Structures are given as C-alpha cells and as structure tokens.
C-alpha cells in the first residue's frame, strides 16, 4: 500500500488501527480496529458523523471494544479444544467429570447464538 497518498490524519488513524490490532494480539487489521482508531484519533470527524446520523459515538466505541474482547476470548477458548485434562464441574445438582476441551467447545458454541439460519 502506498501510504504517500494518504493525508497525515489518515496515516495517524492507520497507525492507531495497527496498534489496536497488535495490542489485541491480532495479526491482521480488521474493520473493528479501524473503527476504534477512527473514534479514538484526536481531530477525527468520525464521532461527529456518527452523531449526525443519530448514533452515539461512545456506545459505538464501547461496542467495538466488546467485539475485540469477545474475539480474544474465542481465541483463548479455541486453544483449549485439544486439552484433554479432566475437571469436576457442578452442574444440575451433581458433580460431573468433563474435559477442558468439552467445556471450551460448549463455551465457543455460545458465541454462535443464535444459530445461523
């Protein structure tokens, strides 16, 4: 990408998006990283544009931060899918022996709720 054609402000936003992705442990800059950068860069017109269409920039920013946190949780859960360690879980009034992988799989399934049609 030829960044020479970008404005100074655009370069700042792009750098902030890369930083957001790096801090989250992501190898790729996704749209949510750009949104966070657009909302957090001083002098950005994004908050004003959101207000102009009736959106709350703080709510949008908090939602974007939540998306990043959920992505981090999903990554950590996915890493546990091969863990055959057994744990005792108290469920429905009884102790059950379960593997970490089973519990991680069930937790990951919650991220896909409601199921795609």
Task: Give keywords.
2 domains; mainly alpha; elongated; 10% strand; 117 residues; 5 helices; two-stranded antiparallel sheet
Uncertain parts:
none
**Beta-strand residue percentage:** 5-15%
Instruction: Give the overall form.
Output: elongated
Major β-sheet annotation? 2 strands, antiparallel
Strand order of the largest sheet: 1-2
In short:
By secondary structure, the chain is mainly alpha-helical. It is built from 5 helices and 2 strands. The longest helix is centred in the middle third of the chain and has 23 residues, at 57-79.
Question: How do the strands and helices of this protein lay out in sequence?
Answer:
Layout: H1 8-23, H2 31-40, H3 46-52, H4 57-79, E1 86-91, E2 94-99, H5 100-111
Structure description:
By secondary structure, the protein is mainly α. The chain has two domains: 79 residues, no CATH class; 38 residues, no CATH class. Strands 1-2 form a two-stranded antiparallel sheet. It is elongated. The two termini are 38 Å apart.
